[in-house]
Every structure is written in C-alpha cells, then in structure tokens.
Amino acid sequence: MESPINSIQITGIYLFQLVAQDGRVVKDLILFSVKGEANGSFKTDSLANGIYTIRAFTKYLENFGEEACFYKKIYIAGPLKSIDIGNKQLTENPKIEVAFLPEGGNLVLNAPNTVAFKAIDQKGKGVNVSGKIMDDLGDTIVSFNTSYLGMGKFIMMPVDERSYYATIDRYPEMKIKLPTALTDGISLNYKDNANALKFVLYSNMKLVPHRPFYFVASHKGVVLFYHKIQMTDYNQLVKVSKNLFPKGISKITLLD
Predict the structure, then answer these.
(1) CATH number, domain 93-183, options 3.10.20.600, 3.40.50.720, 3.40.1670.10, 2.60.40.1930
(2) What is the pLDDT of residues 116-136, one digit of tens each?
(3) Which of 34, 102, 163, 223 is most buried by a 10 A CB count?
C-alpha cells in the first residue's frame, strides 16, 4: 500500500547566542526545530542589567557570513531586590475614624438636617476625606467633603422607611451606619449673620407640631435667657442678638 506524501517535514538544528554589548557571548542555546519552529529560553538570573543581542543561525547560514544571521536587541533587567522593613506593614490608606454628628443631636424624619462630621487618623489628627450618604436601596443621597482639619458638614432629609449609611472614598471596607431618624422631633440649623445669630428649627413635615417649645440659652450652666416658640408650620426662624452672649462657649437647648 502506498502512503501519499501530503507535506514535507522540515527539521534542523538552530543555534542561538546571547551577546553582551562588549561582544562577549554570555549564553548559548541549541534547539531542534520541526517545520521551522523551535521553543526555548535563556536563563538570565546571573546577568547584569543592560542591552543584549540575540543572534540566531544555522551551520548552513554561517557559510554566507554575518548578514545571513538573525539579530534582535533586547533589554534584560534582573529580579527586584526585596527591602527588609521589619514587622512594619506598608498600606496605601492609613486607618481612620469618621464620626457623624447631627446638628441638634438627632436626625428628624421628613425635615432638613444639618449633619457635621469629623475624620481623624490613629493619632487623632484630622484627615481629609470624601464620600457619599447612601440609603438601604443603594441610592446616593448626598456627597460630602471635608473643608478644614478633617471636618465638614452636609444637609440631608431622611424619609420614612429608609435607613442610611456613609461610604468613604478610597476605603471600600468602611460602611458607617447613621443614627435612626426620629419621627417626632426638632432639627436645628445654625447660621452666623452679622450682629445676629440665626437658628432655623425644622419639624417633621408630616407632623406639624402645635405644642410650644422653649428656646433656652445657657453659659457655664447659668441660664442666660429663654424664649417661648409656638410652631405653626414645619419651620421656624429664631434671630438672637450676639450681645446677649458672653465670650466663650454657650449652649442652646430646645425644651417642650
């Protein structure tokens, strides 16, 4: 039985050299090829970093001079050396803590709430951060950024049947739950305006309070003054002269 020849198997010996810039042959490699193809590699761990030339040829091609050989310039870099840093662990992001503080003490449902926040590192120093307030459905409510020494503030309005948490950019592992908003309460928003202090009181828009509140100012435990407020809408503006406050830190309290 005759076996037809449909292809010719081309085999041969190929010689490879790795040549340094000064002309020295630093590595030799002999490969057996089938159909003009061969696989192999040079071990370069012991070589200095630099430019090398791969020279490939066969014994037959040597008869035609260097022009008949194959040349390819490459750059070889040795393995990176490790640096001993003891037991210290280098991380891109240092550990931080972020606290959220609703102005007035609590979040109030269906009312604008000013929320202050402060971000500190492990040494207690303020750090700049940015992030988002998300609800339990994954929707973004508001974005925030620190403005000074790791501190900042934003305004949000919690709604019924939703819970909220904060995410911090560059800290994907941080997910900070915000306090549950009160159904019945008053949120307080403070603004400094020339010679007067402006306090805007907000209540739940769905529960307009008809009972009175008392706006009380004190300093070092001593009551400076109090003022009765009858809220007939969900917001109320209270303007107080700065002359009524002594130097130092004073406290504002709302009492029912």
Answers:
(1) 2.60.40.1930
(2) 999 998 888 899 999 999 999
(3) 102
